[in-house]
Amino acid sequence: MSQFVAQSKTQYDGLYEESIKNPEKFWSDFAENEFIWQKKWDKILDFDLRKPSIKWFEGAQLNITENCIDRHLDTIGDQTAIIFEPNNPNEAPQHISYCDLAINVNKTANMLKALGAKKGDRICIYMPMTPELAYTVLACARIGAIHSVVFAGFSSKSLSDRILDAQCTMLVTADGGYRGQKITPLKEIADQALENTDCIKQVVVLKRTGINITMQEGRDVWWHNEFNKANDECPAEVMDAEDMLFILYTSGSTGKPKGMVHTCAGYMVYTNFSFRNVFQYQQGDVYWCTADIGWITGHSYILYGPLSAGATTLMFEGVPSYPDMGRFWQIIEKHKVNIFYTAPTAIRALASCDLSFVNSYNLSSLKTLGTVGEPINLEAWQWYDEHIGKKECPIVDTWWQTETGGIMISSIAGVTEDIPTFATLPLPGIQPCLMDDSGNEIQEKESEGKLCIKYPWPSMARTIYGDHQRFKETYYNTFEGNYFTGDGAKRDKNGNYRITGRVDDIVIVSGHNLGTAEIENAINEHPRVAESAVVGYPHSIKGNAIYAYITPRGEFDDSAIPSLQKEINELVSGTIGPISKPDKIQFTNGLPKTRSGKIMRRILRKIAENELDKLGDTSTLLNPECVQEIIDGRLTD
Ligand code: WT7
Hints:
This protein is an alpha/beta fold. It has 20 helices and 30 strands.
């Protein structure tokens, strides 16, 4: 076992101390010993967080796929790299060895090249959770094309926005994707998206479901036709450390999603480091992260982290509820999963079902459990511990973000203590701090404030694609010289962190990061909407749910409400995706505003949360009378 993987609390303390005392030596020693480089770096770290400008391993050359694939071939080539479990439990799973992975990724890479892709191009990937999705992501990395994976639950509008923002020239998609009993018509959605984009020259279509689609001559080709022609050896493109590896979009507090940019070397180094430490992966373990590759969790902890560590990583195409609510537990038994990493929202949904769904399966292979995406409440934590871990598995509550690239604050499985509802301690190399409202760092150990990170780490996002100014304003202006996470946190006397939730206009619904402004923009498109305000409120399964307040335009009577609600839901679904649909829509004659005309979302949030005694002073509002109207008309469960 590497000296960089903590095996005891003392070793963790030692690593942490070294990583803070001399971060550059720490990361250079780790990077030197644990990866293959085509050329070593000239300088470990060069940064100025006020600009911000961040460069890790400058001068180094590498290809991440040589680290995720080629280097394993002589040692563990026959070991399974990816277990593919299809949506339908009656369809056979696939065990893809590292040797098979090499062949498939190389063929895919040659296919993309033959179709015109080259280093630096942006390739959009809009695919279901099939092995070909993994091949395509890795093939992009192989040839130095920048992948932009768009979650296959997003609408055509979201897809076209992302394609346009990154000026992608190629799209890889599928005819459709299985999700439980349903099929998502991915190619049809993509066709709609492409009506509004002219940068895509080539579309590659995987046949997954066999549903009817139309192929556009000269633009669309079938995956199988092109793949079968491709050669299985493709040299890895030589990449500079700071070359872009991928763009991944995340919601922002204005309507426009932010294309977070991650670069080759730092991202590789830190996803590998954090994967091995947090999950304590041992050779031979079967590891399963239930996320979709369309999110950062899938990028870092289904693909790059586990594969660079030579792990066996499971990819599940389906949903937890199909064919029934026992599906996750059935998969754990079937593939003897040792490490299981999922989201609190899934845990809460599964905990609300009859226990017989769990108890019908043998879960004794499990050694470690993990959660990610939002704060986990005590009840859900205890259920996970008792019924899934049988009180014998450590639970790692991993706090991180699309922007951070890798896990930042988490216990280390079986090594450092886990504390229910606490993400606990920072990983080596990570320097969190809490800030007060006047922008000063809080020195007391036991405290509460806004969570920042005060020193660079290798996998941090480098910019927002095409908008460095927005990157600076969003993350580096609030607390100069520090990365601001947008989260609030508490710290206990031993330095353990408990994330309390977002302190900005982002709401985490079922683990998905949604920008309220983006939802408002979609709602405002409706001709009968004059104005809207969207807030989050606590929800027992989803963590948070969406409450939309709308002032209608023109003549309005209550009989119009049901059809309007339906149309607005469809509009939001169609514009962003079904995950963003409001749970409650209330029509009102006015929204509370400051004298300068700014909507007071704080008041609306309190009403949605049913905390009517915490509205504060409303008398200074421009239109205080609307508050009572909203309270009287509020929607409760
Ligand atoms: C936001 C980032 C990181 C992959 C999934 C989400 C919340 C994430 C935790 C956790 C409390 C958490 C934060 C964060 N979050 N993990 N363990 N405990 N909150 O990535 O979509 O970029 O969202 O998710 O609010 O800022 P994301």
